[in-house]
Amino acid sequence: QAGELALAVARYTGWPLAPRLRRVRRTAAQSGLDATARRRNLRDAFAWRGPSLAGQGIILVDDVLTTGSTAAACARALAGAAEVHVWVAARALPPEDRD
């Protein structure tokens, strides 16, 4: 879903789409994991497979933000970028805020 959202953003804005961030390690499903387990699960799971990002501003598109673990793991893989902005379509509420 995130890839489809990123494609829509690129088409709407005219900004280039560079889908070179890749999952390089299989991970367990994030659902049901607490924040600590989510971070551990995604450690070193993503890598940038493109040209240098030095000095570049990046927009990272995600479909749903729960704990931010996936976005943080992806942002770490984009090391060297001048800045990484995370755009999400939806924010999951923490369990204590759900009614």
Largest sheet: 2 strands, antiparallel
Radius of gyration: 14 Å
Mean pLDDT: 89
Percent of sequence in beta strands: 15-25%
Instruction: Give helix and strand order, one letter per element, not per position.
Output: HEHEEHE
Using the alpha-carbon principal axes, give the shape.
globular
Structural class: alpha+beta
Distance between the termini: 26 Å
Helix content: 25-40%
Poorly predicted residue ranges = none
Oligomer: single chain
Biggest sheet strand order reads 1-2
Number of helices: 3
Q: Quick one: how many beta strands?
A: 4
Quick structural gist:
The protein is of the alpha+beta class. Helix content is 29%, strand content 24%. The protein has 3 helices and 4 strands, in the order αβαββαβ.
Write a structural description:
The chain contains three helices and four strands. The protein has 99 residues and is α+β, with helices and mostly antiparallel strands. The strands form two sheets. Strands 1-2 form a two-stranded antiparallel sheet. Strand 3, helix 3 and strand 4 form a beta-alpha-beta unit. Helix 2 packs parallel to helix 3. The longest helix is centred in the N-terminal third of the chain and has 12 residues.
